[in-house]
Design a protein that fits this description.
Length: about 200
């Protein structure tokens, strides 16, 4: 199944594969660009509009243009809040209206993508993103040894762990079940520096 390449700076020749039940967006590597090494990692908004807006204000202040969203955004009506950003959103277990989410993300342009999983080379780093509700698939991805980073959500608990060559990151939740303070993360791919940002 083909998908046309987007116009974003990292999604030239984007491809869409069906591997069993796993839909994976992928992209060819694009050379690093000066001043464009930071990405934001968000997850589990569960319709909490205010916390998403607070996170996006931080991204604007820090001139961060790329958002990795680890699922359970839930409401496609929140997607337009991320206009002007390159957003890679993966499907969570409560993202029930997948068609609406896909249409909303496609309207963002800028190379934005939606799928069950996302895998790409970003600034020379091999990155994989999935929600985490498919536990066996998450474990397989983490222990496969193919990625520098695996980003996931679902648990609503922050995680920063190295397993072999792979750094596993859960940025925490912006909404839904409340086990910790609401948070997201900013990663500098040039320095491997990860910063958790609390929004309350």
């Amino acid at each position: 199944m083909g998908l046309a390449a987007g116009k974003g700076n990292r999604s030239l020749d984007a491809c869409f594969h069906l591997q069993g039940v796993y839909a994976i967006m992928c992209a060819k590597p694009i050379p690093p660009q000066h001043g464009d090494m930071k990405i934001a990692i968000l997850s589990d908004t569960h319709d909490h509009r205010d916390n998403l807006i607070a996170a996006l204000k931080t991204l604007k202040r820090e001139s961060i243009r790329t958002v990795i969203f680890c699922g359970d955004l839930t409401d496609a009506g929140l997607v337009p809040l991320m206009a002007g950003l390159e957003v890679h959103l993966v499907e969570g277990n409560v993202d029930s209206d997948r068609a609406a989410l896909r249409r909303a993300v496609e309207r963002l342009g800028a190379g934005s993508t939606f799928g069950l999983e996302y895998a790409a080379t970003i600034e020379g780093k091999q990155v994989a993103v999935l929600h985490g509700h498919l536990t066996d698939r998450l474990i397989e991805t983490i222990h496969g040894g193919l990625h520098d980073y695996v980003f996931h959500g679902h648990t609503h608990r922050r995680r920063d762990e190295r397993i072999g060559r792979t750094r596993v990151v859960n940025p925490g939740a912006l909404g839904g079940m409340h086990f910790q303070t609401r948070s997201f993360a900013i990663l500098d791919l040039a320095t491997d520096d990860l910063r958790v940002v609390e929004v309350e």
